[in-house]
Specification:
alpha/beta, Purple Acid Phosphatase, chain A, domain 2, seven-stranded mixed sheet, six-stranded mixed sheet, 7 helices, 13 strands, globular
Length: about 280
Amino acid sequence: MNPPDWLPETAFPSNKPIRLAAIGDLHLRTSIPQDLADDLRAIDGLADLLVITGDLTEGGKLPEVELARELFSGIRMPKVAVLGNHDRRSMRRKAMRIALEASGITLLDGASLTMTFDDGRRLGIAGVGGYGGGFWPEEVPDLVSARLSKAVGVRARRESLRLQQALDELVGQHNDANVVVLHYSPTVSTLGNEPLIKYWMLGNSLLGKVIDEHRVDLVLHGHAHLGNHVGQTPGGVPVRNVAAHVTGRPMIYDVTTHRDVQEVDRPWSPVAVTSMPERLR
């Protein structure tokens, strides 16, 4: 598929892609799984950025949040995350944010940031948790008899507008790649073996529409535990479901402009970041 006309004809200054590590749906409860800790330590420093696509905790309880803080405090790479539906069960959201930020995680909740590396590469990241709502009529017929409750529809539209605002902030920045981080899916193409009747709970087509209207090179999401790893939006933007239940481990991708995404099995050392939010330093 040829890239859209509005994608810039820029080349990476160092002829090197941006390398992202990603995982989601850890659902930490009473302890940190040893294999998870080992996997994260094994990739630490082998990517430019670690992306966490939500549901760090099972229920947003502060002991669970403390486990997440402990786990990610030992990871040296810059880290960004969005909250998942399980995290949002927390009754103490401010305390959760403080704890996660203390571990070096920058939470994106309808916001964007741009990272600039020493070699001149620039990465734009827009993040929002997202919401359900379904994918009719773009990808599947409506499978919910009541056409969704008013509350679900309002929340879906609100989250899509917040994503649009975050992506609008990246317009004109001449980034080498732009990445969207979600918890919910923007497409059915990564829902795999999830029951059709649950599609409305797993994401919505409004997110996909917003993404397709912007220059986006990769979307990372989780939430669909029975889904598949690789998909794309109706407009052709690469989408990767990085829920731990799907991938079994943190994934690493090389991302370049024109939506070129390659899974990595032979890492190299990342380049230092010279411009980024203080919490990512």
